[in-house]
Design goal:
By secondary structure, the protein is of the alpha/beta class. Helix content is about 40%, strand content about 20%. The chain folds into two domains: about 60 residues, Helicase, Ruva Protein, domain 3; about 200 residues, Vaccinia Virus protein VP39 (Rossmann fold, 3-Layer(aba) Sandwich), CATH 3.40.50.
């Protein structure tokens, strides 16, 4: 079978899925172990029976609703490839809003990432700031293991300390920057999530229960203790949570509190700084 024929079959198999043609191409590249950008150039190449079998298995998983990143075990974010497993949240493009805002400020000597998951925020920032040191926490040891693997693969493990901690509980010292993308889905919102999110992301990474705001209360209340003078706090939020989280920042004594929108115009990041 030629590669172009395999791709046509994949496109047909995923025709009822939004973005199915793109998914078919990416999955075929994954089955072949090549970059997706090479698929067109390889259209006349032969595909082995083993490659076809592997591709068909991937297509079946995608047809059943499993996200592409879960099938491949990786997600591209900010130009880098990160390992993802069932133990961590599948990174979302919206989180790049937080990265972009962090990079607008001064380069920190030391920063803290609370609830790091796969490590995408901490590791992306370390890649952009070669002189910075990072500390990343997560309550899940399995998630920290994924972050550790990603740190090694990206060559920044020597500048990152990974700590199993319930938010600030096991953290010491102060930081020029604190960042977090905590679980923020309210308990009553879980049933309304898309199947790809609800069934494939770990619940602990999606919701803290209740109104979804409890992590922000802890993060905001503790920030003055752990921020250096002038240090910044920056969190990702759900699109309806901006005003509530901004008020938490103000109540904690932070200054310059601001709401930032993502590329779709939805509130996505709250930022503030210690006096």
């Amino acid at each position: 079978m030629k590669l172009a024929q395999a791709l046509r079959q994949g496109t047909v198999a995923l025709r009822d899925i939004d973005g199915g043609a793109r998914d078919a191409r990416v999955l075929l590249a994954g089955a072949l172990g090549v970059d997706a950008s090479r698929i067109t150039l390889m259209a006349d190449d032969d595909v082995t029976p083993g490659d076809v079998t592997r591709y068909q298995a991937m297509l079946a998983r995608r047809t059943a609703g499993e996200p592409v990143a879960r099938i491949l075990g990786q997600r591209r974010f900010w130009g880098q490839v990160f390992k993802v497993t069932p133990d961590v949240l599948d990174p979302r493009p919206e989180t790049e809003t937080l990265i972009a805002e962090a990079l607008q400020g001064p380069v920190p000597t030391r920063f803290l990432d609370l609830g790091t998951g796969s490590g995408i925020i901490a590791l992306t920032l370390l890649g952009e700031w070669p002189g910075a040191q990072g500390v990343a926490t997560d309550i899940s040891q399995a998630a920290l293991n994924v972050a550790r693997t990603n740190a090694h693969d990206l060559g920044v493990s020597g500048r990152l300390d990974l700590i199993q901690s319930d938010w600030y509980a096991c953290v010491s010292g102060t930081f020029d920057l604190i960042v977090s993308n905590p679980p923020y889905i309210g308990a009553d919102e879980m049933a309304g999530l898309s199947r790809e999110v609800r069934e494939w992301d770990p619940e602990i990474a999606l919701t803290p229960g209740g109104d979804g705001l409890s992590p922000y209360r802890v993060i905001a209340d503790g920030a003055p203790k752990y921020l250096c003078p002038g240090g910044r706090l920056m969190v990702e939020i759900g699109p309806t949570q901006g005003q509530a989280v901004a008020q938490m920042f103000r109540d904690a004594g932070l200054q310059g509190v601001a709401l930032l929108a993502d590329l779709d115009g939805r509130d996505r990041v709250v930022t503030g700084r210690k006096a």
